[in-house]
Structure prediction request, 719 residues.
Amino acid sequence: MEEHDYIIVGSGAAATVLAKKILEKNPLTKLLMLEAGDLIPAKERRQWWNYTTCADGPLPYQYTYDKKSDNQSTIGKDDKPTWTTSGGRVRAFGGSTMHWGGWALRFKPEDFQLFTNTGQGADWPIDYQELEPYYAQAEQYMSVSGDETENWQPRSTPYPIPPFEWTAADGEMIKAFQALDIQPGKMPVARYRKCMTTGTCKYCPYGARFSAQYVLQELVENPKFINFKVLTQSVVTNIIASSKTQISGVDYMNNQTNEAFTVTAKKIILCAGAYEIPKLLMASTSKYWPHGIGNDHDLVGRYIVTHSMLEVTGKAPSNPHGLWQEYDFPTLMSRTYDSPEQQKNGKLFLFKDRTRPKIDIAQLMIDGMSKIDINKKIRGECEFKLQAFMEEVGQYESRLSIGKGKDRFGLPLTKIEYQKTEEDDKRADTHIAFMKTIIEKMGLEVVKTFKQTPRGDHTTGTCRMSATAETGVTDANLKVHNIANLYICSNGVFSSNSAVNPTLTLTALAHRLAEYLNQQDESAHA
Amino acid sequence: MAQENNMIGGKLCHTNIADTLIFSEPCTLSENQIAKLWQIFAQIGDHWKDVYNESKNLKSAWLEMVKVKTQQQPSYSAEYNNAILVIEELTQLYGEQDAYQQLFFNYKIPQSQPEKDLEKPHALLTTRLAHAKYYVVNEFIRMQVLSGGFKHFGGQSNSSGEVIKVKGVNYKGFVKGSRYRNEDLVRTFEQET
Prediction:
């Protein structure tokens, strides 16, 4: 059996960075990437026209979402699941970057020292200063457009692309922010090079939204990387431990042929996300690891957490300037309450809703409304919405584990035991009261407040990074504790959550891990 | 099932057909067919007074859309041909100007009336007329709006709603690229000094 240098499980944001950097360092590296999902056709003009012009133009990746019926989360007092899995991830070549929003925000220095600062949660075994150069690399890699004059956190390099300016519709909220000493900011967005016309977003006119699929496709097609192979519809079912400290390879099932295979490698990197990795570790039992790989201390799957979305909607009696957001993504945000002072009470990342004031001109025309009536409607009653992510702390009792049955990919279903703490609820109420003051400062009538059920989009914490095996699953270099050749690169390794989106931080971690592995390989070769 | 209470058109318009896309093999439309279809698209601009971005400026983009929708599966060729026949009948009945007026502003596709809220109402595409509105007119409207054809909506207007100043108003989903490089992206916030 041929031994690979690397097997990477998963093909999303982290996997792609790792493959690219490892192959660029040594183009002949024998690298096998195994992806449970399929290739979703991109750069398809027909698909894009269908999506933008048809009444029910479906997103081509939605079939990969978790089904609602597959959700095996804890049932709350309202008889509804306490955790929503559907719509949070895409299982396909390129992973969830096929559908993400592209918001590319760095964590702040205090996010890496949550326990030290507050006595809650955990510290990361690395600090912001350690990760800062890799944040810079990640921003270059994903061509993040952002405001280089911002001062949210220290940075060594400017953003590679200027920011999207605030839209006219942001104006009244900006003024309210300023009146309340809240610093308005411009949302950093990952753009990459050019539009893929994937049929997967309506993000034009900004030209492009980063997708790992684009990078991955280039790697596959590059003739220099003759030993690089991506196998889709290949579901990894087991990690093979050849001793307590060594992994020899993985077993996988080809979903097209129903054939089972075993492949070996010198190093294995798990990049299959915060849901699949802990399940795979737990499923991989052996005489060396009777409770699953890396799970001697019963920590795999624990501390699952995300950040709650909070919303306050305000109504204006008229919209004299006919404002609406115009972009299909937010341009206004603030990190004033994403601060060290706020950390103890749950940091808050504020942003203006991307859909309001909401007006669908095409639908009004389709409904037969005249131009004059449409213009009157545009200037009539309208809504603005302020949204926020609230940082929450991962709890030991909150756990992801293997559910009963399998999904249509052949992956085990996901069971999530999760209950919001009373403290989280109180914090959310306090934050919503504060957000109301912003809406009221805009001169609007508050008509609705909303606390979203935790969704899986930004799941972190199921394979925490830690200083010791007694407190987490991987070490600071993302190597599973006490195993020489198994690494995890996923949101799951985050030691604590923050209030902002995780993907830029994951991409920075992937750059750092790739550099570490390349150095290791170079030393071994020497 | 709801009855059409906004009956326009004649025998051909009300011919019953299946509620799915009319099947046809991928093919290239004739110049005559394209000219007639283009007329529908241009009439959308005329009826909603698309004076800023005339429909004609969008022709290359429109042609590209029509091409991929007819030359790839599932092909719209039969739907486009159906729409041409529907327009011809409406024109015979009402004259050209009123035919489009009736189709754009008066005709409503009948909706299902689901029992006990078990499902959302949906368009009943059981006639040639309904197909023409749903697959052709509505899609042409969306294409024209997202392509920046109606950026004047939301511009500065007078008390009667007539737009008197146009400035970079973007429809969500508007396509920015080399084809539209002279357009302003969006209205931006200008900080008062």
Q: What stands out?
A: The two ends of chain B are 60 Å apart (CA to CA). Chain B touches chain A through 50 residues (CB under 8 Å). The mean pLDDT of chain B is 81. The CA atoms of residues 9 and 157 of chain B lie 36 Å apart.
